[in-house]
Specification:
Length: about 260
């Protein structure tokens, strides 16, 4: 039976991945900060689907977090067939006025932890000539976002990094996918501290379950990138190519200023 490792697994998209993959009879390694939530989820999935679920309660912004996860799975003799780098957060507001430590932590979680974990498990996948990696990005990966500058930049990195790895590793039978959801029913907006007016002014909102199913379908098709959401989400990822950069950025600033 194959095993998937999921970060940010205690809620939202990560929890939906855990539920769907357990239903598909995959064993799981779940990573998140909350030990209580992870244990509760593990017990539920084990009882419901009869799969093995190991939990690693850990803050991925701490030093050597990826090494702790890797060493733990190695010591347990667990082979990771599917790595899902889902953990991440955003922060809304003018960069100059936001808490500096939070911006650095965002990069540590959204970028550094993702790169570190990928670098730990990818060589083993190449040795086995098989395996898959899903990196959860966002439609924010396709353009700069005033008032969410670090978040959008971090997701642009994730998309670019993932697409490059997709090209590098096809010959080894490894699939790498950047999943780019639009607005999704999670606690992301609350964590990012969006203004109430902003959360009420959005396009079609996907459920976490919809994001997971579309992501896994794209992975099965060996896509490098998938954009998930309604017509507006699809348009957002393409419009920058047809509008002068200066005009585009000015329009984005007005759209996201509250």
């Amino acid at each position: 039976m194959e095993t998937a490792l999921i970060t940010g697994a205690s809620s939202g998209i990560g929890e939906a991945f855990a539920e769907e993959l357990a239903a598909r009879q995959m064993n799981l390694v779940l990573v998140a900060r909350s030990a209580e939530k992870l244990q509760q989820l593990a017990q539920t999935l084990q009882a419901k689907y009869g799969v093995r679920v190991d939990v690693i309660p850990l803050d991925l912004t701490t030093a050597n977090a990826a090494s702790v996860i890797f060493d733990t799975t190695q010591s347990l003799g667990i082979t990771i067939d599917l790595l899902i780098n889902n953990a991440g957060f955003g922060d809304y507001g003018e960069f100059s006025s936001r808490q500096g430590d939070r911006q650095v932590q965002m990069i540590q979680l959204n970028v550094l932890a993702l790169v570190d974990l990928t670098h730990k498990y990818l060589p083993l996948m190449r040795d086995r000539r098989g395996g898959s990696i899903i990196n959860v990005a966002s439609i924010a990966a396709f353009q700069p976002l005033p008032y969410m500058s670090v978040y959008a930049a971090s997701k642009a990195f994730v998309r670019s990094f993932s697409e490059a790895l997709w090209a590098e590793n096809r010959q080894y039978g490894i699939k790498v996918l950047a999943s780019c959801p639009g607005p999704t029913e999670t606690n992301f907006a609350q964590e990012a501290r969006f203004p109430a007016a902003m959360t009420g002014k959005t396009q079609k909102v996907s459920t976490s379950e919809e994001v997971v199913k579309e992501t896994l379908a794209a992975l099965a098709a060996n896509e490098s990138t998938v954009v998930i959401g309604g017509a507006i989400s699809q348009l957002i990822t393409r419009i920058g190519a047809f509008v002068p950069r200066k005009v585009f950025l000015q329009s984005l600033e007005k759209t996201f200023r509250f």
